Amino acid sequence: MRRLYIATIFLGTVLLGSGCKKFLDVNQDPNNPMDVSEKLILPPVEVTVSTQVVGGYNGVNNAYWMQQLSQNQPSPGQETFRIFPVDVDNTWTYYIYPNILNNLRLMMNQARTAGHNEYMAIGKTLYAFNLAIATDVWGNVPSSEAMKLPEVSRPKYDSQESIYQQLQVLLDSAIYYAGQPKSAIAPGTDDYIYQGNMAKWKKLAYMLKARFYLRLTKAPGHTAAAQADLALAALANAFADNSDNATVSYTGGAQAESPWFKNTEPGAGGVVMNKTFIDFLKNNNDPRLPIIATKDVDGGYTGRVPGATTIPDPTVLSQVNSFYAAADAPLFLATYAEALFIKAEATFIKSGAAAATPVYQAAIKAHMDMLKVDGAAAQAYINSRPALTAANGIKEIIYEKYVAGFLSIETYNDWRRTGYPELQLPENPFVNYIPRRWPYPSNEILANPQPDHKVTTADRVWWDAK
């Protein structure tokens, strides 16, 4: 994975060189270099998605707000909702738009010209994945004009509703390209997610279609039943088992550590397990607890009270365990367990508790298997869970999805959409509500003023309807 790190540096050098070596040529657009191959563009894009977005500020912030992790600091601002436009600058200004979406656009332009179907499929899938992340946290964002520099220096903002339509179009196109004959030049080791396996990329595209369909169960103009039908149809072609999980692996060497290792190592803001999450696992006698969290100095499991200003000795608190936080731990972008939880919820919506129960149980088992929990212990836990009913079905499904989605960016989306898990405000909150969105970044507010920038973190995005 050290080569993965070098590739990131190399692409930046190549793109920079593409602009600088012809600095005096006004007809050369440094945002559109034409001499960088797809094999050089793809690796650093995937690394940026994994390390700087899913495992970066987005993932860390979600884990704090959803009370899975806590900051062992005297003033834990991030987990108490102290978020300002400058805090989200990097995610927008350096990662999602230029390093991911623009580079994917360049890659797809090259692939389209050369007839490289595989890179088209991967590019469209990753484009949809990251555009969804942007619209989910900010609402209306640039899309249709976002990649038209330098002609359009101040792109308009597209509605979230139109972006969600675009996501499905992108994924349908990805599925088409993934099914085309193999190209003369196809991805292999330069693809850190699936190593060029297009059958798996096709499954991921279907999985994301289901994720995005179910996101709209309460969106204006949509019904839960219709979205459930669409999700179930997509899932019929999505992940079949844990071998289909979309992951990025890390070797753990210098400059090649998992982002959650870097996020939780000593000195990384004093990151520890949150009391809310630990207590939920403890109260349910969940066999995943010792795999997810380390023991405290007394041999038990203790999470930090969210928002507390006291700073206990870190040894009395549980840390994130090695499955998720080792230097060589994989980063999960989408999992079979998530696919089954989506299926369980969609089945519950369409067919009721009895039909959803075996799917719900299979989803729990899939996550247990991913963590390599003993089979008997896993089954005993599943048997101990409350039966799904018309009254508790969504709650039970989402609570278990919350556990299986530990450190996932999806837990925040599910909380906004369903209200689960039912979270209390942390101590000493900066605002008296859990934010429904992020503020727009300061760089964007200055460079491209828009009416949308007037929203506050209390305002809901389009699909987050009451």
Question: Would you kindly provide a written description of the structure presented here, covering whatever features stand out?
Answer:
The structure is a single chain. With 466 residues, this protein is an all-alpha fold. Helices cover 51% and strands 3% of the residues. The protein has helices spanning 2-20, 38-54, 57-65, 89-114, 117-138, 160-178, 198-215, 224-235, 259-264, 275-283, 289-292, 322-325, 336-351, 353-370, 375-384, 393-404, 410-418, 442-447; strands at residues 69-71, 246-248, 271-273, 331-334. Strands 1-3 form a two-stranded antiparallel sheet. A two-stranded antiparallel sheet has the order 2-4. Helix 1 packs across helix 2 (38-54), helix 5 runs antiparallel to helix 6 and helix 6 packs antiparallel against helix 7 (198-215). The longest helix is centred in the first third of the chain and has 26 residues, at 89-114. The chain is globular.
> How many helical stretches?
18
Q: How many DSSP-defined strands?
A: 4
Helix content: 40-55%
Largest sheet: 2 strands, antiparallel
Shape label: globular
* Rg measurement, Å: 22 Å
Low-confidence stretches: 1-28
Overall pLDDT confidence: 93
Which sequence of strands runs across the widest sheet?
1-3
List SSEs in N-to-C order: HHHEHHHHHEHEHHHEHHHHHH
